[in-house]
Amino acid sequence: MIKSLFISSTSGCFELQNDLPFYTDREYSLSLNGEIIKTGCKENVFSLFDLKPDTEYALRVDTDKEVFRFKTAAEFCCLNVKDFGAKGDGSTDDTVAIRTAIACLPGNGRLYFPKGTYLTAPLFLKSRMTLEFAEGATLLGSVNKEDYPVIPGVCHDDVKDCDLPFGTFEGIERSMYQSLITAEYASDIYIIGRGTIDGNAQNSKWWTEFKDDPVARPRLVFLNRCFNVTLHGLVIQNSPSWQLHPYFSKYVNFYDLSINAPKNSPNTDACDPEACDNVNIIGCRFSVGDDCIAIKSGKIEVGKKYKQPADHHTIRNCLMQFGHGAITLGSEMGGGVKNLTVNRCIFNATDRGLRIKTRRGRGKDAVIDGILFENIKMTNVLTPIVMNMWYNCCDPDRFSEYVWSREKLPVDDRTPYLGKFTFRNMTCDDCHVCACYCDGLPEMPIEEINVENISFTYSPDAKPGKPAMRNYAEEFCRGGMYFDNVKVLNITDVTVTGPDTEPLITKNVGNVQSRNLICTKA
User: Of the four listed, 145, 166, 219, 226, which is most buried by Cβ atoms within 10 Å?
Assistant: First the structure.
């Protein structure tokens, strides 16, 4: 059965309904209005492009008897960026032409980029517009730092006597270089097509000269307090830092994207929704130099100021390859993370599968609760599940005794909280370091962890490592499931094959229920 995820004026994204991670169990072909348009399809999520606006279509998958009917959206107009002087030759600076085209584009209009390479400085988008990049079209970021204006972290409204936030990075309000594509306080924006948005950071100094700059590096796409934004079908790559960064935005969708950066590129997270509400990340492929998806909600100051959690996020039918964490929560989670569902995904050769990063000092609003992972396939992931309340990176006091002390400290306004987590119907093959490593605080143990119907096996070439980034972390190799400072732990129908330690290691766990835990030698 076909489910419609997104229909624009010229494209559509669709999902096959099954319980399989990312791929179907057999190839299929697609027919549109009775004509076969694709064969040899394997992925659960697929897209159609070059459709006509305001037009009805009949779509059929050859494995499905029924025809799925849909109608593309109407639009006011379509303008070609070359009509405004853009050359698309990869060497001419097309900034003025593209900015002029965006300024002229009427509401509910589409700006079309035909095949070519459009070299540009940063662009601002406005409400009610579509950018479409044709197959072979690349928006290429300038490598000149002076082309990137500085956006202040906060501006003051003298009339209303209040602050308006504009810039941010790593959980605080701060000045930043404008991202290649930026939208602030805008709505109804669609960025679609089979083209590429390339930050070009590999040919710049963004990855090598940034540590002493008080201004934060640009992202590739930055959306501040936006509403109803969708990116569909594109290749997103080589950002100066995070690739996609929606910030305090609502109803943001990422469908059928490929997001890439070299494995050694610094802080090139693929998609970092921060303090957002209703985010869908479906059918995407990731291969980056840091976390594939990092869900955030600011450090303690931002959490206290706005009390805005990351809420109602869905991640489904995605493929994560390489990267530090396939899906990370934090470490900047001062406003909390709630109601996250991750389903039907494949994690391949990431350092960790689920990676929770928090620490003392994130604050009492830093509540992570209602997290569900199911139907996940992991291969060659060093440690599939990591929950770490001792994270020791990115803060001036990272090595302080307050962060690393294993003593039971007083619970106060700085203490974070981890609630209920469920992991079920997962296979985790060729683990290296640990099957699972969950380490709560003695004064605030993790509330509840449920592990159901999961199998863990180990790589024959497993290498030792530290499962979590914390001070004085111990190394493991082929470690079992490790739990420390947890209130309730439920383990049901779990198989651990070939561990070098006990399959289940518990310390300071209040209530352990283990049913059908099977440990076998390799």
Answer: 219
